[in-house]
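::Encoded backbone::
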Amino acid sequence: MHRVSKSQLEAYGLCPRKWGWSYLDRLPREPNRWADLGIKVHSQLERYISKGVLPDPDTGEGRIAEAGLHLIPTPKTPDVMVESHLFLVNEHGYYHGFVDVLQPFKVTDHKTSSNPKRWGLNKAALEIDIQANIYAAMGMEYYDVDA
């Protein structure tokens, strides 16, 4: 049984050859400034939730992170796990991932976008989204619930 991440599944679904270059041949990827920005915003949100450190309003990533504080748990909330490495094993495979925020009955994944209405996922899209379903299944298994 192979261990796969949601990124691998999405890459394979888009282009099996590109997946092979990245995950089998390990060819380096082109730098992406938007992905780098998302990583920086993510870091600010992670520090806020786990340590109570407010995002830096003097940076672009800090201002973006500040704008989303109302969507995430308050710092040091009991039963909230930040950057949890979870695994899921079922009849289809062995999945792994880092869940940004895991709390009872809720999985949060930080996303940044210049246009969330255009690029964000609505309820129908989330129901079939690979990442959303894997993370939901991981959370259900972790908390031993069936819905």
